[in-house]
Structure formats: C-alpha cells, structure tokens
Amino acid sequence: RLGAGAAMTIFEYFMVLLSVMLSLALAQLVTGVGELVRAGNKVRWSLGYALWLVVGFYIALDWWASLWLVRGFPSWKIVTLAFLLLQASTTYLYVLWLIPKDVGDAPIDLGDYLLTNRRLFLMAFLGYCVFGAITNVMVLPAESRMDLANYAALGPMLALAGLAWGSPNLWIQRFAPLAILLLMTADFAYYFETIS
Fold it and tell me: What is the pTM of this model?
C-alpha cells in the first residue's frame, strides 16, 4: 500500500533495477582499476587496454545520461524496457570481460590480455551500440527518430569496434578506442546541451 504521496511511475520503478546494474558496472570498473594499480609491478600496462578502460567509463556515462534524457517519456512498452535491460546488461558485461580476474596473483601483461580477450568485451560493446540504436527508435518522438544526428556516431563506432574485434594489431587496438572516445565525446557535447 502506497503512502499519501504520488504513485511511482513505471519509469521510476524500472530505474531502480537499471540503476543497480549501472552501479554494479561502475563498481566493477573502479574496483578493477584499483586492483590493477595495487598490483604494482606485477602489471604491465598497455595504452590500448587503458583506452578501452576509458571507453567503459564513457559507456556508463552515456547510458546514465541517455536515461535522464528520456525521463519524461509518457508511456513505456515492455519491449522498450527489455531493450533498456539488454543495454544495461551489455554495459555490465563489457566491464566484467574487460577486467582481468585474480589481479595480483600472478604477473599480467595487459597488452596480451587485451589481444586474448578483446572479442568478449567488444561483443558486449557492439551489443550496447545496437541495443541503444533500437531503443532510440522505440523511445524518441517520431519527429526526431530519423534525425541523423541521433545515429551519426553509431556507424563509425560499429566499424571501429568490428575492426578491433577482428584484428590483433596493437596499433588498431590503440586507434579504435581513441577514435571511439572522440566520437562519443562529440556526441556528448551535442546531447549534453539538452540536459536540464
């Protein structure tokens, strides 16, 4: 039984679950970075790996900001909520698969780790992008659904992630996340103006 206040909306109710998932992803990311730093000399850092870590933070930031932008959407269909849940899941899986297990137990070369495990976390990144685009189509008002600015970064990000997924070249593993970060930064600059 609800108290004297207004009833919780479906968005607010569902946001609790999504917030928990996003919090778990961020906690996993911060804890993982902390464990890598604490391991000290046992960890050999890689620029490409560090850039993919920053991409993980950007994904969480992007997802959080996107949810704020749709807070006033009047009705929610179960399919839309399912895609939001899938996008939250891919955010968590990206971070889970990016961070090595048992850091500090044995020496680890993050460049080698990146090349060995890139397909797992990049699969999650590709899913994040695709589920995000589908959710945009379902949530955005009809007049802005086909606004190409909503999807300008999507194609290049998918191509870059696909390139990094397929190539073990260390230069590609540095270039792809750096280019993705630049695309996401441009996207943030465009859309953060609308947050109020």
Answer: 0.87
